[in-house]
Specification:
By secondary structure, the protein is α/β, with parallel strands linked by helices. It folds into two domains: 3-281, Spore Coat Polysaccharide Biosynthesis Protein SpsA, Chain A (Alpha-Beta Complex); 309-414, UDP N-Acetylglucosamine Acyltransferase, domain 1 (3 Solenoid), CATH 2.160.10. The protein has ten helices and 31 strands. Strands 1, 4, 5, 6, 8, 9, 10, 11 and 12 form a nine-stranded mixed sheet that branches. Strands 18-21-24-27-31-30 form a six-stranded mixed sheet. Strands 14-19-22-25-28 form a five-stranded parallel sheet, with no helix packed on it. A hairpin with a 3-residue loop joins strand 2 and strand 3 (48-49). Helix 1 (7-15) crosses helix 6. The chain is globular, with a radius of gyration of 23 Å. The mean pLDDT is 93.
Length: 422
């Protein structure tokens, strides 16, 4: 094993790294799910929020100095991080620091992802890291960042970009990297019509994961240069990366399972369909994302709740859940839940039937309802007898129906005021 791959060397790298999670995105493609919350604060997987995944990755990787950069409708995100991530040992130099937009430079809010980091450059400097790891706060995956940091050092890179290998035909919706045989990045295009394949594998392309490793001094130089460019949108994907490909050493890091070498799990849950599907995948017998993994736990705020409860056992009125995930404090009261994911404190009342659906916390489903292939947002009260997901044309008059036929139901669509904070 080379010295740059030994656990001791990697642990030194992680200790000398500051992670910055960009969590200010509005996530407009998630429609009503982001009307009152930032995308990283959207619930996922029965008990988590999306931001818990990059935060857990940092914590499990040994990166215990973390800044969370927020902007858009951040209240629930800030509250969640304060409640769930305050266990760090500050006396040992560990922290999760919240960095809301404060107009620290230039008298304006964050203009782009690069500007969001630039406006906090004095805070970064005060922590004196050797490396800065920049992460998107809105993707679902498990990743040890230590090997990526070692890869960055090993390849003497100015910038290393985490990449996900995807079929060329599906790469059109991503930012795609072109690389040479040494994995040096030679080009970058956002959502290209004809994505460029990987050398020797023309049917696969490299999609950017929005994960960047910079040596700190080099990052500061590039942010200061970009800040004075009047034609720049001050964004990593649109400005910083294309410029550096032509003027610096930019290396692609393929994200693979460290044990098998195969493509690892990574999901962009930025649309209603992709969000629904990623939640549904968790219900499978052997899902790609193992949230029961004790070796790489996903940390979150643990609300104190009683167990789930199933009541009534008559032939026509049986409280039951089949092929489903049901979280704490749920009460299935004479209803049936099939192939669905229920977050905490959901109540399904008598004679109702829920199938292929994602039900967010604090939802009440009345009696004799039928719900199919839907997402019900937090705190909604579904009236007795309501049918959702059987007649999409009718559903579209009241709710949002996605291209894939998923019906999204939010409080305002039901004419209800918010009962719970997002």
């Amino acid at each position: 094993m080379s010295e740059s791959r030994t656990p001791r060397f990697v642990s030194r790298l992680t200790r000398d790294t500051l992670a910055l999670i960009l969590a200010g995105g509005s996530g407009t493609r998630l429609k009503g799910l982001t009307q009152w919350r930032a995308k990283p604060a959207v619930p996922f997987g029965g008990k988590f929020r999306i931001i818990d995944f990059p935060l857990s990755n940092c914590f499990n990787s040994g990166i215990r100095r973390i800044g969370v950069i927020t902007q858009y409708k951040a209240h629930s995100l800030l509250r969640h991080v304060q409640h769930g991530w305050s266990f760090q040992r500050t006396e040992l130099g560990e922290f999760v620091e919240l960095l809301p937009a404060q107009q620290r430079t230039g008298g304006h809010w964050y203009a782009g992802t690069a500007d969001a980091v630039f406006q906090n450059i004095d805070i970064i400097r005060s922590h004196n890291p050797e490396y800065v790891l920049i992460l998107a706060g809105d993707h679902i995956y498990k990743m040890d960042y230590g090997p990526m940091l070692a890869y960055h050092v090993e390849h003497k890179a100015d910038l290393t970009i985490g990449c996900f290998e995807v079929p060329v035909e599906t790469a059109k919706s991503f930012g795609v990297m072109a690389v040479d045989n040494e994995w040096q990045v030679t080009g970058f295009k956002e959502k290209p019509v004809q994505p460029e394949g990987i050398p020797g594998r023309p049917d696969e392309a490299l999609a950017s994961m929005g994960i960047y490793v910079f040596s700190t001094r080099f990052l500061f130089e590039q942010l200061e240069l970009d800040a004075i460019r009047v034609d720049s949108e001050h964004d990593f994907g649109k400005n910083i990366i294309p410029y550096l490909i032509q003027h610096a050493r930019v290396i692609a890091y393929p994200f693979r399972d460290l044990e098998t070498g195969k493509q690892a799990y990574w999901r962009d849950v930025g649309t209603v369909d992709s969000y629904w599907l990623a939640n549904m995948e968790l219900i499978g017998i052997t899902p790609e994302l193992n949230i029961y993994d004790n070796h790489w736990p996903t940390w979150t705020y643990q609300e104190q709740l009683p167990p789930a409860k199933f009541i009534f056992d008559d032939d026509d009125r049986r409280g039951q859940a089949v092929d489903s995930m049901v979280s704490g404090a749920c009460i299935i009261s004479g209803g049936t839940v099939r192939h669905s994911l229920l977050f905490s404190n959901v109540r399904v009342n008598s004679y109702s039937y829920v199938q292929d659906s994602v039900i967010l916390p604090d939802v009440v489903i009345g009696e004799r309802c039928r719900i199919h292939k839907a997402i019900i947002d937090k705190g909604c009260i579904i009236p007795d007898g309501m049918v959702i997901g059987e007649d999409l044309a009718e559903d579209a008059k009241h709710f949002h129906v996605s291209e894939g036929g998923v019906v999204l139901v939010c409080n305002d669509m039901l004419g209800q005021k918010l009962r719970h904070a997002r």
